[in-house]
Amino acid sequence: MMKRHISILSIAISASLVCLTAPARADVITGGPVYHSGQVMAVCTIHNGGDAFITIREHVIYDASGASLTLSLDSCGATLPAKRTCGFLASVATSSNHSCRVRIDQNAGQVRGRVEVINASGNQVLSAAPMW
Known about the structure:
Elements (H helix, E strand, L loop, with lengths): L1 H19 L6 E8 L6 E8 L5 E10 L9 E2 L4 E2 L3 E8 L6 E7 L6 E8 L6 E7 L1
Antiparallel strand pairs: 1-7, 2-6, 2-8, 3-5, 3-7, 4-6, 8-9
């Protein structure tokens, strides 16, 4: 009988500790799809408008089939300081639309972004959409 009470007490204590542990907070911002027949590059930018750094867990550009593209340039590290912007880009097929997704550890309330497709010269935005 004593052994049963100890087991029940152990379960109750374990359950209490689980309830006291704060859940992990993660958020996602996404944008797109964007498309234009003259597109050769997709560019995604992220801006942290908050007062603290954010931890970037994942940032990808993907096509209409959901396949992630290989990034050819990436200025986003593992963290993005407050009031800063970073970006990443990839060469894209002219026959597909493209989107961006960024997964962060914090609430994305002050994080915004933009996805664009640009021309071969890199000097003209052909189509764009916000990320939130």
